[in-house]
Amino acid sequence: MEMTRVLYRAVAIVASALITACAGVPNAQLSAYATAFDEVKSAGLAVYEESARKATVVQANYAFPLTLGAPILDRQGCGALIVAIGDYRARCELLSAIQSYNQALLDLAAGLATEDALKKIDGATSSLNALAGLIPTVNAAFGSLVAILGPAKAALEAALKAQDRQRLAQQLLVAAPLMQQAIDFLREDASRLYQLEYLYANSRLVKIEGQISQNLTSAFKEITTHSPPKDPNVAGELVLQQTRFEQIFSSPEPAFNQRLKDAAFSPSGASPFDAANVQRLGRQLQAASSALDGFRAEGLAFRRSAQAIGQFDLALLAWSKAHADLVSALNQPFIAGGGTEQAIVSLIRLRDQAKLTKQLLRQP
Question: The pTM is what?
Answer without folding.
Answer: 0.79
